[in-house]
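Support case: user asked for a sample of complex input and structure output to validate their parser. Sending the pair below.
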Amino acid sequence: MKFQSLIAAASIAAVGFATLSFAAEISGAGASFPYPVYAKWAEAYRKDAGVSLNYQSIGSGGGIKQIKARTVTFGASDAPLKGEELEKDGLIQFPMVMGGIVPVLNLEGVQPGQLVLDGPTLAKIFLGDIKTWDDAAIKALNAGVTLPSTAIAVVRRSDGSGTTFNFTDYLSKVSPDWKSKVGSATAVEWPVGLGAKGNEGVAANVAQTKGSIGYVEYAYAKQNKLTHAKMKNKDGKVVGPETKTFQAAAANADWSSVPGFGVILTDEPGADSWPITAATFILMHKKPQDPASAAEALKFFNWAYARGATLADDLDYIPMPEKVVGLVKKEWVQVVDANGKPVMPSASN
Amino acid sequence: MADVALNPSTAEPAAKAVDRASVLRGFRLGDLAFFNLTRGAALLVLVLLGGVIVALIAGALPALQTFGFGFVTSQSWNPVTEKFGALAPIYGTLVTSLIAMLIAVPVGLGIAIFLTELCPPVLRRPIGIAVELLAGIPSIIYGIWGLFVFAPFLQQTLQPFLISVFGNIPILSSVFAGPPYGIGVLTAGLILAIMVLPFITSISRDVFETVPPVLKEAAYGVGCTTWEVVRNVVIPYTRVGVIGGVMLGLGRALGETMAVTFVIGNAHKISASILQPGTTISATIANEFTEAVGDLYTSSLIALGLLLFVITFVVLAFARLMLLRLEKQQGK
């Protein structure tokens, strides 16, 4: 009896594997920040086009390694690769979706959006130079807000992350002190603060600790109803975190200035630009070993640009502006099969 | 079983002898196969262990070559400039485990003694099962509970209390220096204590139960108190087992990852105060490995793993040595 049921189980498993391997499938791996939106897109796309997408959210570093090793059709990274690195490995890179990074705080008597900060002040807080909420630098930006003398508890990411990369990149751009003492990377040597794992960890710690300040992706600030701060941008205008200001930053960026669209959307000019906006990138081989699945992947991205916007919006991700999408699609002709023919000739529709 | 083949009524004598020889050969072959299978299983452990060591050393080599001995003496952990030193995680690993053992060993032994010597039989099973259930809780649950329930509780109660009590005592005031964040080295140590408690308790209870009743009864007979029986009969008789349980707990405390990551604060810093954030080796690896870009960064994280391996090995070796010396002193 046991033996028979074993055989039955094995044959069911075999059939299962067989069907799995026959279905058209796109494989991707990398950044965890866009995982929720990629997963949602994949689900909708499978219903639409019958092609399934298997995305492993293993982190940007892992995604870069996987695409270089050609084990996946596309890799995903929050930090763009440099032009020469793309060249060396024969990769193309393009931005897929955006998010905003928002300073969040927990301070008695301060309402969401009430507190205004600028880059240099934010850098001083995260450097530990500003230690209390009633510091003169914060007061100067917030006439009319009563600020207690509570000590500032800095909360930051403990894990390497694209969020940290963009946040520290912004601080490096606006504060020479930050640039020389800390610098920017997916993980840095933080001068002060508590480390929490993931956006959800930072959100939870900020929600619990009185007098704390942290930074999270916009979606987490919104969904956890945390008190966000407004920021003074490069043009000296005070802006709040919202889709409009994130898109303004992307629209004002000079995308063709860096190969592979490797623009980091922090401290962009423009009256409406949110200063800490971040795009997340897709990496693909120019000469994929399996042109058919590369074509499927590009079809999926094409669909995501066209129809995925509302789904992204639901999750508080920001779709790429029209203008940028047009530029990206022009780059897709670089992905060719063994005969040098573009795998997706009609990419411009 | 061999007699079955020798049933006299079935075959002629000559055939019987052949039968018997072949059956016996079959048994010998079976035994040989069994011996080789079990030996293979045992060797597999050695191969796996060797493989892990080789992989760790190979992975850690770039970092060790770059930083040399400075890797274990430097506190700086800077992914931007690619300067890596492991002192802060090593310190955090040892201190959190120390705090955990300081709490879990007396409490665990206390529970085991109560369960075996003093507990009314009705309570024995429920308490024993409850302790074992503690061991079954996944570590991520301890982490979440620690972050959302335990840490805020400590921030409002124990930590302000410690700060105010020890505030004026010279050395202790810096060990318990504020501000109270809720999470930090002490919180991680306390969570670890809860996590290793069931290991120490169940193993101690099991070995305490092996003490022959006649020894205990004799001790009670000459007028010993319960404390004296435990101190002079039960503990000496079961010392090896108890230390084994403690070592198992210590091994878990040294390597525990998820629960610690949630509540330790993950700061690459050595603070005098145990209320401040710190980090451990396993927490650092878990936090940073996924997004570590660059060979030196990855290699440094693997080197941390190698260090944890070495620390665990040294601790266990030390425990063995201690046991050997104890046995020698007793003249066993």
